[in-house]
Amino acid sequence: MEKEEEEMREWCLALPKVELHAHLNGSVRDSTLLELAKQLGDKGVIVFEDVKDVIMKNGRSLPECFQLFELYHILTTDHDTVTRITKEVVEDFAMENVVYLEIRTTPKNNEAKGMTKQSYMNAVIKGLKAVEAVEVVLFDSNSRTDKPLTCAPSSELGGDVSKKKIYVKLLLSIDRRETTLAALDTVNLAMEMKDQGVIGIDLSGNPVVGEWETYLPALERAKQLGIPITVHCGEVANRKEIQAVLDFCPQRLGHVCCLNDDEWKKLKSLMIPVEICLTSNVMTGGAPSLELHHFADLYNVKHPLSLCTDDSGLFSTSLSNEYYLVASTFGLSKAELFQLAQDAVEFVFAGDEVKKTLRELFRRAEKELTT
């Protein structure tokens, strides 16, 4: 059994994958987090001993996860740290054979640190351009001068990560703590940076904070501008908001855990693709267990969905592991897992040229991985 498990894990790693729901800060490496936290401790900004054990722990409780969120917030007020984290996160996803990655992050204003939303995003883009271990394809929406993505299945790479290529796009997150004006600023920034890899808008943050009406003007503005939108939906059982989100009908939805029967019915009729985050949902209590996760219901009715990590560092997971969990929990075959990964191509916010290239990539990989 152990040999079968190991073989399946290796197969899930070799599988080309599309990641559509990954928060930059929550995907930071534990080793980097430990190093940076120690530096903050030495400076007296935090008490290092208070977070040391939590950082080194595998399988954190929800309160411990929130403790790390506070640490992420402190760390990302420094431009150089943002650049470093971005670089490492992209490299880590590429090592997992992720061929297309949408990273979401909240642009931050911090006057004390001399940080604006624009300078924060410049630090992120600097990190993308600093990646050397893999070739990052940051394509311009107004030009097709970039080389096409030619990512071979991992066995053809001979373990040489330098041959890997990965498409990376950015989603700007509106935080639920923000005002309407601040949310509109983020949408305007997304429009200004659309030729620098920014491709969409996300609404996220503490699900019990804020009102839908606060962010609606910004989301409607994004829709008018033709900017794709994804919304965290149903992380808590807020009936009024879930209904409003479904009525708004964004291009994608994240999580959708706490829906009632009528809301499930409406979601399925709208066929809005869902970003499924198994480990995250179980750890945060959005789903009672892996076995009872709503993935099975949506998958069985052929609802559009994609597997995602949410916060790979925070929840000690990877996209390869999420595919393995689906295989081991719900009994999906390799052919079914491959189809699940391939289907995610249709839900990316990138344009037809990118989708065409990704489809071709999967066609080339299919023969090797499913026969």
Protein model, in words:
The chain is of the alpha/beta class and 371 residues long. It has one domain (2-27, 88-364): TIM Barrel (Alpha-Beta Barrel). It is 50% helix and 14% strand. It has 16 helices and nine strands. Strands 1, 2, 3, 4, 5, 6, 7, 8 and 9 form a nine-stranded parallel beta sheet that branches. Helix 2 (30-42) runs antiparallel to helix 3 and helix 15 (334-343) packs antiparallel against helix 16 (352-370). The longest helix is centred in the last third of the chain and has 19 residues, at 352-370. It is globular, with a radius of gyration of 20 Å. Mean pLDDT is 91; it is low at 141-162. Keywords: Hydrolase, Metal-binding, Nucleotide metabolism, Zinc. InterPro entries: A_deaminase_dom, Ado/ade_deaminase, Metal_Hydrolase.
Mean pLDDT: 91
CATH superfamily grouping: Metal-dependent hydrolases
CATH topology type: TIM Barrel
What is the subunit organization of this protein?
Answer: single chain
What's the CATH class label?
Answer: Alpha Beta
Which stretches of 5+ consecutive residues score pLDDT under 50?
141-162
Order of helices and strands: HEHHHHEHEHEHEHEHEHEHHEHHH
Q: Which CATH-level-2 architecture?
A: Alpha-Beta Barrel
Structural class: alpha/beta
Tally of extended strands? 9
Number of distinct helices: 16
- What spatial form do the alpha-carbon principal axes imply? globular
Largest sheet properties: 9 strands, parallel
Radius of gyration of CA atoms, rounded to a whole number: 20 Å
Domains (count): 1
Please report the distance between the alpha carbons of the first and last residues.
21 Å
Strand content: 5-15%
Helix content: 40-55%
Catalytic activity: N(6)-methyl-AMP + H2O + H(+) = IMP + methylamine
Family: Belongs to the metallo-dependent hydrolases superfamily. Adenosine and AMP deaminases family.
GO molecular function: adenosine deaminase activity; metal ion binding
Cofactor: Zn(2+)
